[in-house]
Amino acid sequence: MTPQLRVYVPPHPLIKHWLAVARDAGTPSVLFRSAITELGRWLTYEAAREWLPTLETEVRTPLDTCPATLINPQVPVAVVPILRAGLGLLEGAQSLLPLASVYHLGLVRNEETLEPSCYLNKLPEKFDPQTRVLITDPMLATGGSMMFAMAELTKRGVDPALTRIVSVVAAPPALQKLSAAYPGLNVYTAIIDEVVNDQGYIVPGLGDAGDRIFGT
Ligand code: PRP
Ligand code: URA
């Protein structure tokens, strides 16, 4: 069977709540940041299902021994935040993946062409092919930035089937591009909004995520 892009919108009240807070134009930067942190935490929790590698072992309780499942520390886990806005999701992701390496990728869209350019690339030359990679970026609009990130990752040996994207608002143009290029990929998002306007903003969306996180 051909693998397909899978997009999960977890029906969780905490995710819906923090999305509503983030969408509200009246939410001040300090609370917006908290909302994005919480979304990072709960969406990472969902994304970790059947993705975080485990190993079967045995533990001794005070009374007896019993079978047990632990996170496998031998399999590398990496988080790739797309700067700036992806940094907002990092704290929540890291709280659940404390042993993950963090590789920053700084991308910014040209306001006219909407094409991304890269101003910081801390990716290693090569990833172990077993590496579980979680990419964080709250906005998937035209998809240009995430396509750029995926190209940088896959040319360094990352397997799209072992990669999870955590976003907050995803739009069809981005999902269509990712689906065509990386059918095994999994996306976790709080919502799918249908419209990307002529300025490249998702509507209704939540505005400029980076500006709102950093108060700029
Ligand atoms: C925003 C957002 C994504 C990108 C999405 O970043 O955080 O990275 O736009 O748009 P796309 O799907 O059309 O590429 P931006 O370039 O505004 O930079 P910032 O995070 O520093 O604000
Ligand atoms: N980037 C943002 O920050 N917001 C959008 O709506 C689209 C791209």
From TrEMBL:
Activity regulation note: Allosterically activated by GTP.
This protein's pathway: Pyrimidine metabolism; UMP biosynthesis via salvage pathway; UMP from uracil: step 1/1
InterPro entries: PRTase-like, PRTase_dom, Upp_B, UPRT, UPRTase/APRTase
Pfam families with a match to the protein in the record: UPRTase (PF14681)
Residues reported in the UniProt entry to bind uracil: I202, G207, D208, A209
Domain Phosphoribosyltransferase: 9-216
Signal sequence, start to end: none
Record's catalysed reaction(s): UMP + diphosphate = 5-phospho-alpha-D-ribose 1-diphosphate + uracil
UniProt binding sites for 5-phospho-alpha-D-ribose 1-diphosphate: R84, R109, D137, P138, M139, L140, A141, T142, G143, G144, S145, D208
Keywords of the record: Allosteric enzyme, Glycosyltransferase, GTP-binding, Magnesium, Nucleotide-binding, Transferase
Bound cofactor: record note: Binds 1 Mg(2+) ion per subunit. The magnesium is bound as Mg-PRPP.
Cofactor(s) of this protein: Mg(2+)
Entry EC number(s): 2.4.2.9
Top enzyme class: transferase
Highest taxon in the source lineage: Bacteria
Any one GO molecular-function label of the UniProt entry: uracil phosphoribosyltransferase activity
Family statement drawn from the similarity comment of this UniProt entry: Belongs to the UPRTase family.
Stated role: Catalyzes the conversion of uracil and 5-phospho-alpha-D-ribose 1-diphosphate (PRPP) to UMP and diphosphate.
This protein's name: Uracil phosphoribosyltransferase
Species of the source: Nodularia harveyana UHCC-0300
